[in-house]
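Retry 2 of 3 after timeout on previous attempt. Resubmitting structure tokens to design endpoint.
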């Protein structure tokens, strides 16, 4: 593959996988029933954000460790050639900022496995550092928010917020988030990179969901699709499974702990960092 072709392919793929997991919380909560959701008092956008930031700090302090499995799947169709790959990775997190990755299996394109998937794991460690987490956290320091609606469903009521980044940090994004109206946890995300990191990319669409694991909500499934100028698409899905909470403390204990104060200062919103953000950063280097 020529140098130019390789660069285009890498850029395209990194956008597709660059938005895999946002800097949103691992959320301790009890799922509300539909009747209680109807009784939730509707709040202003500032009230929602205050509660979201406060509860995120509590949950980040409470979750001390977990293990899980990720399945990365990449499908690229376009110039210079079609590529498919899959990688299964075991993830171990230990508070406050230790994350270990163990590759369990690999199939498909060696180029994608070696030059994309593995660099994604390396770049996630960069995004997970405290200084980067503060600059990219879901806070009013980094984003402008607008309340767009209030939705009810069998799973509970949710606030829908539009967010626009305040600066051109390479890790930020724009889009919408759904916030649980009872526990103030982000449950769903739709968005796109705030800054297109490559000339070759026309558009990138992202969709993410979260699931409850014990008393926490963690990423469940991510899907990202990018279109390139030369024609073709790059699609990434990341499936999260086999979670096991290895260490945690009650959120009422975490609320008054030193860890929560640290989480507030750093803008930490959860133990699962901005995987998609780190991928955007990589994309910008090609």
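Retry 2 succeeded. Sequence:
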């Amino acid at each position: 593959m020529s140098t130019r072709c390789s660069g285009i392919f890498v850029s395209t793929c990194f956008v597709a996988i660059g938005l895999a997991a946002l800097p949103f919380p691992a959320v301790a909560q009890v799922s509300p029933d539909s009747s209680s959701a109807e009784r939730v008092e509707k709040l202003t956008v500032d009230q929602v954000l205050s509660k979201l930031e406060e509860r995120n700090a509590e949950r980040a302090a409470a979750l001390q460790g977990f293990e899980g499995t990720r399945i990365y799947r990449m499908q690229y169709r376009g110039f210079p050639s079609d590529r498919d790959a899959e990688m299964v990775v075991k993830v171990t997190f230990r508070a406050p900022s230790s994350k270990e990755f163990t590759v369990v299996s690999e199939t498909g394109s060696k180029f994608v496995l070696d030059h994309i998937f593995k660099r994604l794991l390396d770049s996630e460690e960069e995004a997970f550092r405290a200084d980067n987490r503060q600059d990219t956290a879901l806070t009013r320091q980094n984003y402008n928010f607008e309340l767009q609606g209030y939705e009810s469903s069998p799973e509970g009521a949710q606030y829908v917020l539009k967010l626009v980044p305040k600066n051109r940090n390479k890790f930020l994004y724009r889009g919408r988030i759904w916030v649980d109206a009872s526990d103030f946890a982000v449950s769903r995300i739709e968005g796109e990179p705030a800054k297109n990191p490559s000339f070759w990319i026309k558009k990138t669409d992202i969709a993410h969901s979260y699931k409850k694991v014990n008393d926490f909500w963690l990423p469940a499934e991510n899907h990202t699709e990018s279109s390139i100028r030369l024609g073709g698409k790059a699609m990434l899905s990341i499936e999260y499974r086999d979670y096991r909470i290895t260490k945690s403390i009650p959120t009422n204990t975490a609320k008054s702990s030193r860890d929560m104060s640290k989480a507030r200062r750093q803008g930490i919103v959860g133990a699962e960092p901005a995987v998609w953000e780190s991928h955007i950063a990589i994309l910008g280097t090609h």
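Attempt log closed. The chain has one domain: 3-283.
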